[in-house]
Amino acid sequence: MARKQIYSPVHRLFKSNTPDESSISIHCHKRIRIMLTMGLILRKIVEKKRIAEIKIDFNGAKIQDGRGSKDLRTEAAHNLPCNVLINGYSTWEYVNDPECNFHERIKKQLFLLSASTVIVLKDVNYIDSQWEKNGIIDVLIDYLYKCINI
Known about the structure:
The protein has about 150 residues and is an alpha+beta fold. It has one domain (about 10-150). The protein has helices at about 10-15, 20-50, 90-95, 105-115, 120-150; strands at about 55-60, 75-80, 85, 90, 115-120. The strands form two sheets. The protein has a three-stranded antiparallel beta sheet with strand order 1-3-4. Helix 2 packs parallel to helix 5 (about 120-150).
């Protein structure tokens, strides 16, 4: 017997450039989940590399998995608002370092975390960008320091 394909509003959002009222909620929930996962990965990087002094910084997101539509006035909002740097090096460099010996699934997870977007209305993405410019990245960095110092 063939399995029945289940389509949810979440599935529809990922396959369409048309956001609905749930896109903001989905973006917020994905951002929280991704920030939690990044904290866990960062802690493992610090343990595996035995990094004693840590400076967490960021630069702009480099890749994305979605695009908006000019006609529909939508844009792809990154769920992880920045590329996290540890002592000036991208988390990519640490995760791909053979000395760290991360499993391929962790490498793939980090790639997916960095690229993950949700299609939202252009105005919503503008507000999201303002949060990023006015403090949400500082909150993320504070959270990552707390993950390391547990």
